[in-house]
Amino acid sequence: MSDSLRLIRFTPRAGVPRTVHLVPPPARTGQPVTIGDYVRVLTALCGQQFAPGEAEMLSHASEDLCRRCAAAAAQPPSTGEQ
Ligand SMILES: [Zn+2]
């Protein structure tokens, strides 16, 4: 798994799962993203989106890592051939 992926989860809110998602760095997505400010929507590997102000970044993985993100991170970038 690449350590350049950011660990992102929703900020504490009632009814929202505390699952940790993996978000590619801006260099990979081409999106100008300011971590800590979140001027743009972040999209995790599994497709989960985080609007500005909804996400917080973690410095280490937790036990609640999103399984779809983990599976996506374990594979090389899609080239249409596995
Ligand atoms: Zn995910």
Q: Which runs of at least 5 residues are low in confidence (pLDDT < 50)? A: none
The structural domain count equals: 1
Helix content: 10-25%
Shape: globular
- Tell me the Rg in angstroms: 13 Å
Oligomer: single chain
Mean pLDDT across residues? 78
Listed once per kind, the bound small molecules are: zinc ion
Distance between the termini: 17 Å
Strand order of the largest sheet: 2-1-5
Q: Please give the count of helices.
A: 2
**What class, by secondary structure content?**
alpha+beta
Order of helices and strands: EEHEEEH
Instruction: Bin the strand percentage.
Output: 15-25%
Largest sheet: 3 strands, antiparallel
β-strand number: 5
In short:
The chain has 82 residues and is of the alpha+beta class. It has one domain (6-73). It has helices spanning 26-29, 67-73; strands at residues 6-10, 21-23, 42-43, 49-50, 55-58.
Please characterize this protein's 3D structure:
- The chain has 82 residues and is α+β, with helices and mostly antiparallel strands.
- The protein has one domain (6-73).
- The protein contains two helices and five strands; from the N terminus they run E-E-H-E-E-E-H.
- Strands 2-1-5 form a three-stranded antiparallel beta sheet. A two-stranded antiparallel sheet has the order 3-4.
- The longest helix is centred in the C-terminal third of the chain and has 7 residues, at 67-73.
- The radius of gyration is 13 Å and the shape is globular.
- The model has no long low-confidence stretch (mean pLDDT 78).
- Residues 21, 44, 46, 48, 66, 68-69 line the site of zinc ion.
